[in-house]
Amino acid sequence: MPFGSSKKVHFCYFFLFLFQLPNMGSAHFFVNNVYSLSILSSVDFLFVSVPLLMLQNIFPYVEHFREFPPLALAGVSARARKCCERHRGGVLGCALTSDAYGARRSLNVKSPDVSRMKCVQWWLRRQRDDPLYVVVQFNDTESSVGIPASETFSRQLSENKVDHLFVLNIQTINSLFQFITLFQRSEEIILKRCQITSLQPLEGLAQLRQVELSYCGGGFSLDPLATCSNLTSVNVSYCPSLTSTEALGKLRRLKTVELTGCGITNVDFLRCCTLLEQLCVSSLGSLSSLSGLKTLRTVDAGGTSITDIGSLSGCVALEWVSVNYCTKITSLDGVNGLRNLKTVNASASSISEIGSLSECAALSTVRFLNCKRLSSLAGLGGLKNLKWVDASCTIITEVDALSGCVALEAVYLEKCKILSSLDGLCGLRNLKEVFAGHTNITEVRSLSACTALESVDVSYCKSITSLSGLVGLPKLKTVRAVGSSIPRDGRLEGCTTLDI
């Protein structure tokens, strides 16, 4: 066979197998065992120009590689490499992603992997369409080598007019001053288990958008962050030596604040943060300072000592509220009429009624697990978007209020000891899951018209005597009735899981 013809055959062999990737269990098996991609280095492209154009069609199949696309495939062309960079594993640490700030190319480097930086630098100099974010991890033993190498890498990128920013993940460091040069080009700074006495090296960082501190000691305040005018997110968790958070009130672009395990008892300083969208706190005594924050979407005050949520009434954009384990809360008054509210978690609180939810038209998920005083679900009646209800371990006796919740998909009623009927679920055609174990129900006939039902659990329901109401449900897969006295029903034997 002529030399040129042989190469055409080789390429076609490679090309046809690539198109089989969707049908193969492992793309790596193909690359490593079926045929070596290295043959491309010897292909006469005069003979394969048409197949190379067709090669563009195989790029969506890159996702079939489980870990990393092979370098040989990424090396076919610049287009191929970009496609491989969109794979979750990336190429040599480079990955193309999208987030709230748009499309970006990230380079992940574990300090002091200087060789990784050098081997991709030529490529980065040629790819300027997407912003570059260099993600570098430092710890105390590696910083002496990694910091100078990263500074040199940054300087070389700048000399070649490659715009870039750093995401610095710094662990077990005792001083931040050695990072001052890198901080000037940092968008995100993560400090974990560091012993620090001051955040002064972070003063005036114009590029900084996100700061995260966790398990840090040494006694420090957040005052230096007040000069970082573009800061949008601050997360401080389990830093018991934190002395002051007042500076956050000066950050007018702040959108996300998380203060957990730090002993912070009030957030009055957030009154002026008019763009705030998400708040997570763990030690508050009151939410009064949140009143009127029009952009606030998420509030997590679980485990705090707050007594009410009345201050949330003016937070018109609110979508998600959690007050679980707030044992002093007896009412959900404050969320009345919040038209955007989608999720409420009040598990293990002291609420006794939920009438305040009746006007929350967008509500889709509610969780009242272990609310020992809750005796009725009346506030949920007629909520057309409600999909998920957990009222386990409450003292409800019936679920009639759910009869108008036409979108309902899952109901959890386990260990509601005095619940005697599921009649309120009758005819809910979107209902997929019912968990009613350890209750006092006597039958499941009310589920007979729930045609989307897939899973039912009535384990340890001592009073139930028959599962006949489930016969004929076309999508039913799982039935559990362990610990009951129900006889096996041959008509249910088609279920994937039948545990009686």
UniProtKB/TrEMBL annotation:
Highest taxon in the source lineage: Eukaryota
Record-linked PANTHER family: LEUCINE-RICH REPEAT AND IQ DOMAIN-CONTAINING PROTEIN 1-RELATED (PTHR46652), LEUCINE-RICH REPEAT-CONTAINING PROTEIN 9 (PTHR46652:SF3)
Membrane spanning residue stretches: 37-59
Signal peptide coordinates: 1-27
Source organism: Angomonas deanei
Keyword Signal applies: yes
InterPro entries listed in its UniProt record: LRR_dom_sf, SDS22/Internalin_LRR
Keywords for the protein's UniProt record, in alphabetical order: Leucine-rich repeat, Membrane, Repeat, Signal, Transmembrane, Transmembrane helix
Protein name per its UniProtKB record: BspA type Leucine rich repeat region (6 copies)
Origin organism lineage: Eukaryota, Discoba, Euglenozoa, Kinetoplastea, Metakinetoplastina
